[in-house]
Amino acid sequence: MSSIVSPTSRLMALVILASSLIALDLFMVASTGLLGLAIIVFILILRVYVVLAQTVLANIRVITSYDGIREGDPLKVAYTMCNETVVPIAIVELSLAYPEYLKIIEGSPGALILIPPRGCITYKTVFLARVGKHRIGPLRAVLRDPFGFFKGAELKLGDILEVSIRPREGEVLRKILLNIARSTGLSKARRAGEGSEFYFTRDYRPGDDLKRIYWKALAKMRLAVREYERESMIYTLFLLLIDKSMLYGPYLNTPLEHISRIIAIVSRHLAEKNDWINSIILAGGRLQIGIPGRGRRGYVNIINNISSIDYMSIMNDRSDSENLKALLRSTISTIVSTTPRSPINLIVIASLDNATSVASELKHLQYLGKFTIHMFIPIPHLYGLEKISPFERAIYRIKTFSDTSRAQSIVRDIRRTGIRALAVTPWDMATRIIARIERMRV
Amino acid sequence: MTMKRKTKIVMVSTLLILLLLLIGIIGILEKGPIIIPVFIGAHPANNGPLGLSNLYEMLRYNYTVILVTNWSKIIDSLEECSNILIIIVSPEAPYKRDEVESILDITRKCRSTSIIIGDETGNTNMILEAMRSNTRIPGYSPEGQYPIVYFNTPWGWSGILVLDRPSVLTLLSLTPNLTPIGVLATTTSRAISESTVYSIVENLGNITVLVVGDGSIFLNQVIRSNTTMDYRGFIESMIKFMCKHNCTILLESSKSQAVHPRDAFRMLSDPSKALLVDPISLIISFLVQVIHPSTWLPPLLDYLNRLIFNLLNIDYVRGMLLLISILVITLTIISRERSVPDEPLQDTIEVTWYGHASFRSKLLEGGAKLDKTDFLSLYSIVDSLLKSTTGVSLQSPDIVKVLVSRGINQRKALDYYEFMNKYYGRASSKSRWPLIVFWGSIVRKAITLSEDILRSIGYSLMEYRGVEERLV
Fold it and tell me: Cys bridge to B89: A24, A312, B215, B468, which one at CB 3.0-4.6 A?
C-alpha cells in the first residue's frame, strides 16, 4: 500500500496538528479533541480513497492514436483514458513524454484531469511533424487527492507511439528542379533507338525495317517510319551518412530535413523517368539498407527509408571513427554486391566531420569503373544564420569563419581523391544537388 | 567492477501477515477446541490396562486390520471380501438391529467369515441369535470369579488359563457343529453341562463362530502380563486358526465409550479408576485444549479489558495513557510514512540544436565579444572574396581603383583600404601603431565598411545568402 501512495509534507503537518489538538483536550486546555479525531478520521478516509483511485488509475484502459504522416503537417496525438469503474479519479496530473527535439504547436505537454466514473477523457496535443522516426508517449501520470495530502506513485499510461514522418516535397524545390531540368534540356533522357515508347516519325531511309513504316503518313503520300525512344538503364543510389551535426539548425530546416526533402523530390523526378533508385542510410551507428526499385516503387522505398531515421539513436550515438570505418566497409560491400553491373550514380551526403573518412573508403569504388561518385557536404554552422539580425549574422560569420575554411580545405582534399565533392550551403544546397544529378543523366 | 547492492523484496507486508494471523486465530476460536476423547474401555486406541492397543499392534503386525467405528459403512470400504475375521471384545452396549444386519451383510457377501467374540456381558447375543448360533452369553455372575479353565482347541493348543470375571456360556443344544473348547478345569469331558462351558467353536455353514465368555484375555493387562499361562500363545493360535490363510480383520471399535478429557482428569482423583486412564493420551488431549485460543484468548481479553478499565478510572493515568497512545500513533505514522515532496511532473523542455549553440545564444543576448582574431578573420574573408572576384588582393593599393570601378566612391575606397590594412598590420603584429586599440569597436566598424565594399562585388556578410556562396 505504502509503495503506491505516499503522504506529502502537508499531511505530516496535519497529523501533528491533529495530535496537538487531542493533546490540548487531554490536558483540559481546550475542547479540541473531537476536532483532532475528526481530522484523523478524515485523513484515513482520504487515504483509502487515494489508494483506491490509484489502483483504478493503474488499471485504466488507454487508447492511443495519432494522425499526420507528412513533414510540416500537424501531428495530432491523442490518449483516451476510460474509467470503467464507479470510482472517480481526481486529480491526475499528466505529462506527455516526447523527444525534446519535437515542438508542440497546439495543446500542452501536461494537463490536470478528472476522470469521471464510467467515463472517458481524451488528452490531445499537436506537434509540428518533422521527418524521421519519433517515439511519443507514454503519458506520465501522478494522482493526488484534491487537498494534496497524498500523492500516488508515478504511472505510465498508454503505449509509446512510434511515428514515422515522410519528407515534404515543397513547391519551391519542385520549381527549382523543373527550372534546372528545362534549362539543361534534360527533362527526359530522349534518344532514338530500340524501345517501346513512341518518340517521333521521320522519312523512310533505305534499310529501315518495314515493320516501322508509319502507315497513316502513307495515306498522305509520305513514306515515313516510326522512331522509338531508347530505354536507358540509369541507377541512382543515395548514400546518407548522418551524424549529430546533421540535426543542427532551426526546426524543419536542419541539414537532415533539407536533404530529405531534396532526395524526396529528386527521387520522385527519377521515378517518373523510370530510373532505378535506392538509398542506404547510416545513422546512429546503424545501417538502413533500402530496397532498390524503379518508378513509384523505388520512390516509396526511399521515402520509407528516410522516414525511419531515428533522431535519438543519432544523438546518443557514441561510436568512434573505427566503428564508422567498419560500418562504411560493410556499406561498401553491400553497395558492390547489391547493385547491377550497369553505370551507377552514387550520391553521397556526408557531414563535415565524417566526409574525409567516407571519401577515403569510397575512393576504392571508383576503380570498379561503374560508379560515378558525387559527394555533398552540408556546412552545419551556416544553419545557425537563420533568425538572427543582419549585424549579428556578420559577427556569426566572422566567428565561425574557421569552420568555413575547414570545409573548404576538406572539400579540396576530397577532390584530390577523384571524388566530385561539393560543400553546400543551406540556400544553394537544393540547386547544386539537383543540378549535379541532372547533369549526371546526360 | 561494480558491486551490486542486495535488495530485500517484501512480497507480503508484516501488517498483512499479522492481520491474517488474527483472522486465523478468530477462525479457530470460533470453531471451538478439538476434543481428543479418552477411551478407558476395550478399545484399540486405549493404551491403558483395559485397552486393546496391544492386541491391535499384535494383529496389525501379521494381518490387515480395519477398526470398525460404524458397521453400516464398513461393507463399502472393504476392498477384498474373500476372507473376513470379525473380532468383538467386551462391547459396552448392546448391538442395534441395523448393526447386526450390517454384520450379517458381511457374512453373506464375503466368501468365508469367522467371528471371535470375547464377551462376558451378553451384549453380543443379538449377533449370535441372528446367525442362528446355539450359544448365548447370559452375563457375568459374581460367584464365578477367576475360574481355572481348561482349553482343548481344534487347532491343537491346549492348556489352562485363568479367566477374570467370565460368563458361563449357555448352549441351547449340543449339535455336532458345536464344539466346546474351554471348560472349567474340574469338569471332565463326559460331564459337560451348561454351567461349565466358557468357550466354544461353532460351524454355521460359511460362518465359524468362536465364543469366549470373557473378553479380558484380549486386554492389554493380560497380554502384557508375565505369568506362566500362555495367553498370548492362545490368542495368536486362535487367530491363526480362525483366519485360515490370509484374512482381513475387522476389529470392533464402536462399542467402547469415550470419556471427555475433563472427566478423565476427574477420574484421576479416584484411585480405583485412576489406573484405567492412559496418562500419555490424557496429556496430549490436555495440551491440545490448553494451546487452543478458545482456552486462553477469552480470559486474556477479559483480563486486558478489566486492566484498561481500571487504569482509565485513575485520572492522571488515563491522561498519560491517552497521551502516550497519541504520541505512539503519531510517531508511528510519521516514521512509517516517508513523506515525498509534492513537486509537479517535469515536462519535456523543447530544444533546438545548433552548432556553436552557446556562442549563438550569447550573440542573441548581445554578449558576444570581438577581438583582433575576429578582425583577422574578417580581413581574410574580404581579401579572399576580392581576390577571387577581381583578382586583386586587399593588401594591394590597386584595390582602390578596382573598387572605384565597381561604383565605390574614391575617398571611401581609399579610406577603407587604409583602415583595413592599418589594423591588419596591428592585428598581425607587423606594426605597433596605433598603440591602443579597442578591437570591439574596430571590428564593428570594419564590418559596416566591409559590407558596403562586398555588396559592390555581389556578396554580403549580413544577408542570409552570404559570402560562403563564393568561399566554398
Answer: B215
